[in-house]
Design brief:
The protein is an alpha+beta fold. The chain folds into 3 domains: 177 residues, Nucleotidyltransferase, domain 5; 64 residues; 89 residues, no CATH class. 34% of the residues lie in helices and 22% in strands. The strands form 3 sheets. It has a 6-stranded antiparallel beta sheet with strand order 11-12-10-9-13-14. A 5-stranded mixed beta sheet has the order 3-2-1-4-8. A 3-stranded antiparallel beta sheet has the order 5-7-6. β2 and β3 form a beta hairpin. α5 packs parallel to α6. The chain starts with a strand and ends with a strand.
């Protein structure tokens, strides 16, 4: 059950560790469950409650009503301080000032007290294990038609103790004491942890989005490479494989192999002896150029070794055959040897 422990504090100058404090324990419907007076050290253990509220003695606060301008945030707070300044005998930076909401007529309740005694009194409550969530001026929790507005809450507890809790109090965040060893920076640390969690969550979402975009881009690149180079069986690294294939095509563009038909045919034209060098048939297959000469039987009777030596100097193998000559690279069986076949008879390809 949610309960509220409302304390009626003595004047702050009289509030010490063993001070007697009147209290009333209220339920959710503001009914009085228990009331009495106990020393501060005994209250926290004897009367546990969901929420603790402290009502300041009328001697410790000044309460009045002021006309509030229709402002918000820091500008409104600055306006309240400016309005309180001519009403107070102390500098406003030595005061704890709080105010209620602006009402329909533009007026609002305001109260103030000296900061130092209020901070010490709040610290005394905290040291006794009483974590007061609000420090109310007595005028804020009394009935509007109270017959003794200047009198503090006193026992026996009655209707004066049962008023609803207002939404404002003099429990300023900067004056909040440590509670049972809790550091003052627990709140900031909690907010920092929340901010860090939000930041990490956002970073993870952004990383997931980038990863998805990267996968989509990688897939698109694979499709483009597959369309450009359908001969590639497997595409693992599109950029690298496309670059390698491009370089291979550039290297092969317009380049001839020593075992191709044209290089061998040109070499044969330069190497064959002038006598009987008219070719009747050129047969090219598997990197070997076979040349059948007109009048091959006569030419073969007078072998000439000079073309053979010249061919060897060029890395070619020139051999005499019964019909003429056979020309091939010195390493005709290498993997780069051409495999096409060309046959020319009488100057006409067959």
């Amino acid at each position: 059950m949610k309960t509220t422990l409302r304390l009626s504090l003595p004047p702050l100058r009289e509030l010490h560790d063993d001070a007697q404090v009147a209290f009333a324990l209220l339920d959710r419907e503001r009914r009085i469950l228990r009331s009495g007076e106990l020393p501060l050290p005994e209250l926290a253990g004897a009367v546990p409650a969901s929420r603790i509220e402290a009502v300041l003695h009328p001697q410790d606060t000044v309460a009045t009503r002021i006309a509030l301008p229709p402002l918000r945030g820091p500008r409104l707070e600055a306006a309240v301080v400016a309005l309180v300044e001519p009403l107070s005998l102390s500098p406003t930076d030595e005061l704890a000032i709080a105010h209620g909401p602006r009402e329909a007529d533009g007026m609002a309740a305001v109260a103030w007290t000296t900061r130092a005694p209020l901070a010490r009194g709040w610290e005394t409550l905290a040291a006794a294990g009483l974590n007061a969530a609000a420090l109310y001026p007595s005028s804020a929790v009394l009935p509007a038609d109270d017959a003794e507005p200047e009198a503090p809450l006193a026992l026996p507890a009655g209707p004066r103790w049962q008023q609803a809790s207002p939404g404002w109090s003099l429990a300023l965040p900067e004056l909040r004491p440590s509670v049972r060893g809790a550091p003052r920076w627990r709140g900031p640390l909690a907010w920092a942890a929340v901010a860090l969690a939000v930041w990490i969550g956002g970073l993870n979402l952004y990383a997931a989005r980038l990863a998805a975009e990267g996968r989509a881009l990688q897939q698109a690149m694979r499709e483009q490479v597959r369309q450009a180079f359908p001969e590639l069986p497997v595409i693992l690294d599109p950029l690298k494989q496309a670059g390698q294939r491009r370089d291979a095509l550039r290297a092969a563009q317009g380049a001839g192999n020593d075992g191709d038909f044209m290089p061998l045919a040109l070499a044969a034209a330069n190497l064959l002896p002038a006598a009987g060098s008219r070719a009747a048939v050129l047969d090219y297959q598997d990197g070997v150029l076979s040349i059948e000469l007109e009048g091959a039987g006569t030419a073969a009777a007078a072998p000439d070794s000079k073309p053979v030596r010249q061919a060897a100097a060029q890395g070619l193998l020139l051999e005499r055959t019964d019909q003429g000559w056979k020309l091939s690279p010195a390493r005709a069986g290498s993997p780069d040897t051409a495999t096409a076949r060309v046959r020319i008879e009488g100057g006409v390809p067959r």
